[in-house]
Amino acid sequence: MKKFNIRKVLDGLKEVSSSTPSVQVGPQENHLVQETLQSDHFQLCKTVRHGFPYQPSAMAFDPVQKILAIGTQSGALRLFGRPGVECYCQHESGAAIIQLQFLINEGALVSALADDSVHLWNLRQKRPAVLHSLKFNKERITFCHLPFQSKWLYIGTERGNIHIVNVESFMLSGYVIMWNKAIELSSKAHPGPVVHISDNPMDEGKLIIGFESGIVVLWDLKSKKADYRYTYDEAIHSVAWHHEGKQFICSHSDGTLTIWNVRGQGKPIQTITPHGKQPKDGKKPESCKPILKVEYKTTRIGDPFIIFSGGLSYDTVGRRPCLTVMHGKSIAVLEMDYPIVDFLTLCETPYPNDFQEPYAVVVLLEKDLVVIDLAQNGYPIFENPYPLTIHESPVTCCEYFADCPVDLIPALYSVGSRQKRQGYSKKEWPISGGNWGQGTQSYSEIIITGHADGTVKFWDASAIMLQVLYKLKTAKVFDRNRSKEDKGNTEVSDEDPFAIQIMAWCPESRMLCVAGVSANVLIYRFSKLEVTTEVVQLLEVRMQYELNETESPDGGGGGGEQTSAHPTPGASPQTSGPPSHPSTSSNNSDGGNIPCLKVRSTPLKQSPGYQVDLVVQSVWVSGEPPQPITSLALNSSYSLVVFGNSNGLAVVDYVQKTVVLNLGTVELYGSNDPYQRQPRSPRKTRQPSGGLCDINEGSATSEDRCKSPTSVLMSHSNLQQFYNGGGRGAKMSRKLSLPTELKPDLVLLSVCPPRGANPLDHRDNSFSRSRSSSVTSIDKEAREAASSFHFCESFARKGDSTLTPCLYVGTSLGTVLVLALTLPPAGEQRQLQPVIISPTGMLVRLKGSVLRMAFLDSAGTLLPSAFEPWYEPNVTADGEEREKVRKRRPVSVSPTTSQDFNESQFAVICSEKQAKVISLPSQTCIYKHSITETSFILRADVVQMNQGVCVACFCANGHIMTLSVPGLRPLMDVNYLPLTDMRIARTFCFTNLGQAMYLCSPTEIQRITYSQETCENLQEMLGELFTPVETPEAPNRGFFKGLFGGGAQSLDREELFGEIAAGKASRSLAQHIPGPGGIEGMKGAASGVVGDLARARIALDERGQKLGELEDRTAAMMASADSFSKHAHDMMLKCKDKKWYQF
Known about the structure:
Among the domains are: about 285-390; about 390-415 and about 440-480 and about 495-545 and about 595-630, no CATH class. The protein is built from 16 helices and 59 strands. It has a 5-stranded antiparallel β-sheet. The protein has a 5-stranded mixed β-sheet with strand order 33-34-35-39-37. The protein has a 4-stranded antiparallel β-sheet with strand order 1-58-57-56. It is elongated. The termini are far apart. Keywords: Cell membrane, Coiled coil, Cytoplasm, Exocytosis, Membrane, Phosphoprotein, Protein transport, Repeat, Transport, WD repeat. Belongs to the WD repeat L(2)GL family.
C-alpha cells in the first residue's frame, strides 16, 4: 500500500516538473502553423431527432394537411409528414401527453397533458412553438374534443364536468356542463370521469358525453339539459357515432360492443361480444378483456367498418395484442408485435356527417408504427418510410462519418435494396403532408449502429434525413444451436452473445471490422457479387499475459511473455476451418481452448454486401474466459487489424490470416516501464473483466465521482461495452468464477447486472465510476488496457529522418507507445513474407486514459490514414486479371509521402483529462492543455471543419468543448446536457464538418451541430409542416333534406359560449399562460433588430389593447353613472310632491 502511494507522489512530481509553459520549443517551431479556426466558427444547437418516439402515449392526424402527431410520456411531441419531413418539440413541464387534437387545416394543434395543462401549438413555422397554455388548478383533465371547424374546445374532467375553452384566445367560457345536471336526479352514485365527448354529426347542438361508470348522456347545448340518458352496467372505454347521427356504438370493459339508437331509451339495440364464446343455452357470452377503443366508419357502397383494439378472450394467454376489423360478416384479427397505445382510422373526408370512406388504419404500438391498408384484401400493411427501426434490437454502439466517398451511399443502397421484405401494400404512404427544406448539403453522411443481436445497420444521414441503407447480420457466422451440455459447461450467461461492442470502418476501402461481446473480431470485405464460403476462416488467439520472474515456458508461442524485438506470431493461424471445441468444464486445469462462440462448420451463403473474410476469436485460457475487447482499429493499406483488451493487444494480418503480434501492454515498454510492477501469480490476482456494469450505485463520494476511472481500467472504448437492453436484462460482461478471497474486495466491480434487471431503468440514471481503494488490492498498475490505436506513416523513433508505417498505442494509464511496422512489398510478396513489428518505446504520458490520437503535417493539415481503394474481391475473371486487381498499390492520401525529410509532424493526443501536441521527430511536447480537472472526457475526436482542424470533446459533466490545433486554444465550451444516462456516454460521436450525434433514448438518435455555418443554414434545411391546402367542400344536403329538414343542423356556438351569454368563468379554475410562440412566429427564433422590432410591435399592440380596454371600461362606468343619475332624478320627481304618510 505504501509503495503504491509513494509511486503516485512520484508521478505527481513528474507531472509538476513537466508542466512548464505550454510552449516548450524554440519560437521558430511555434509560428509555423497559422491557425484559422476562431470561436465565432462554433455554435451548438440541436438539428433533428430521428427514430421511434420513446414511450408514446397519444396520437392525432390532420386529414387535410395529412400530418401525423405523436405525443410521449415525457412530454415530447413528434410530427411526421411525407418521408423526410419530421419535427420534434418538447413541452417544458415534461409531463405525459394524454391527448392531441389538430385544428384541421389550420396549422395548429392542441395538446392535453397529465399535469392538467392544455397547450396550443403553432405549426405554421418550421420550429413549432406554444402560442397559449391553460393550466387547470382544481380539476384533472381526462378527455378533450374539438369539433371540425369549431373554435370551442370541450374539456372533460375527472369530476365528471365539462368546461369549454376558446382556442383563439385560450380563455374559459362561463358555460359549464356539471355532472349532477347531466345524470338523473334519482341516481345517487357519481358517474365517474368523462371518458368521451363528441357532437352529433347531424346536429352540433347535441353533445354525447360518456362517463366511465357506463352512463351515456345526450346533452342539448341550447336548452342546457339532458335529452336522453343511456345506462349499461359495464364501464365504458370509448364511444363512436354513425355518420347519420341516429346511432352510436360503445365499447366496454367486459369485451362487449353495444349499439344504441339515439331516440331509443333503455336497452341497446344490439350487444356483441366479438371474441367471446357464445353458450348454446342462450345465456350471456363469457366476458373478455376490455375493448379500449372502437371506431365506426361507413362507406357509400357496402357494409360499415367497426374497428377496435382489445376485447380478446381471457383464455388466449400469451396471444399477441390484436386489432380487429369487422366488415359485414367478416372479422379480421390483426396481430401486432407490441401492445397497442392508440389507433386512428384515416378517412377520405374530414366531415363527420358524410360517408367516411375509410382507407387505412394507423396503429401506434409501444415500439412501432403500423399503417394498414383497408382497401386491399387481406389488409396488407404499408411499407414504413420513416427511420423507426433503430431500436429493432437495442443499440450497443454507434459511429458517425461525414464527408464520405460519393460512391459509397449508392453502393450500400444497391445491396441493401435487395434485403427488403415483400407483401407490402402497393399504394403510396398515406401520411404525405408538408414540404422538404430548400437548403442542401454538399457532403454525404453515414451513421453505423451496432446492435445487441449482432446486426450492424448502415444509415444514410445526409441533409438532416435518415434512411436505412443496408443491414448486416454478423450472427450468421456462428452456430446458434449450442447444445445444452455446452451451455452448462462454458459458463456463458449472456442473453446477447452476438452483441456488437466496437466497430472500425474504412470508408475508402469499405473494409469493416467489428468486435463482439464474446471477445471475437470479425473482418468483412464489401462485394457486389454473391459468394458461398465453404469454410469460414477462423484464427484463435490466446491472450494471456503473466508477469512472472521466470520466463513463461512457451516462450514466444502461445501468448506468454515475448521479449524478442521482432516477436514471433502469438498464435498459430488455423485457417483450415474451425477446430473441434472440447466441451470440457471451464475450470479445467489443462486450459482447453474453449471459444465463447462456435464458428459455423457448414458452408455460408453470403449475399452481395459485407462478406466475412476472417473471424478472430479470443479463447478461454486456464479455465478463464477471455477479457472483453476494449479497443479496435484497422488499416486497409497495411491490411492489419489491431485489438486490445484490459492488459494486452494483438495485431492480425488479414491477408495472410495470421497473428503478427500478441503482447501484454506492459511488455511494450521494454526496460523503460515507468511502473515498477510486481510479479504476479497466474491465478490468485485475476481481475474480472470490468465493463461499465460496475456503475457505482451511490456509494462513491462526490470526490470519487469526478476522478478519472482509469483505476478500474475504464477507457473511452470500454464505454461501448455497456448498453441498456431496452427492456431486457442484457449483459455485456462475462460471468467469472472469482477466487473466493478476492470477492469481498470486488463489491464495486459487479461483473454483470442481476438476471432480469433492466439496465435501462436501474443503471442508466447514475453516472459515477468507482475509485474505490479496493481496486488497489488487485494491483492496478499490473493491468494496463489498450484504450486506443492509430495507424499512420510517421517518425517511429526520436530523431528519425524518414517516415515509416507505425502503430500508436494509447493505454488506460495515459501512456502512448509506438510500434514500427515493416511491411513486405505489394503483390505476391505481401502474401508470403511476414509483417514485422518492432516496439520503439514510449512517446508521451498524459493524465487519464488515452482516448484519441491524430497527426498533422508541418502546415497543420490533418493527415488521414493510408488506405487501399476498394476493389471487388470476388472477381470471376481468370487468375491473371485477378492478380492485377490485387496488385493495385494501396494509396496513402497523406501529403507526408512527399514531405522533405527535415519537415516535422505534430501528434495530437487527447486523454480523459488533458490534450498534448508533440512535435515529431524531436518528440517534444510543444502544447499542453488541461481540459478538465473535476470531471473526465467520455469522447474526443480530432475533426476537420471547413476552416481548419480542431479537437472536439464531450465531458461527463455535460460540457461540449472544442480546442484549436496545434495550439490547443479553447474555442467553444457549452454546458449542453447533464449526463444522466449511460446511453449517451456510450453512443456520443463527433464527426467532421461540425456534426455530432447520440442516442437520447433507446429508440431515438439526436443529431446536433457545433458549426456556426450549419446553425445558420438550419432554418432553410428544415422541412415545412404546414402547406396551404383548400378544405374539401362540405357534403351536399340534397333537395328534399333542404326542403323538409333532416340535414346537418348548425349551431352558433359563439352565441352560446361567448361572454355575453355564458358570462365569465371562475378565475380560480384555470390559469392562462401566454406561450413564446407569438414572438417566435414572427420570424422563427427572431433575433437582432428584426426581433426587437417584432417584440416592440407586440408590446405596442398589447399596450394599445390594454388602453382600449381601459377606455371601454371608462365609457361603461360613465354610462352607468349617467343611468344612475337619470334614475335618481326620476325618483326625485316622483317623490317630490308626496307627503310622508303617502310613502
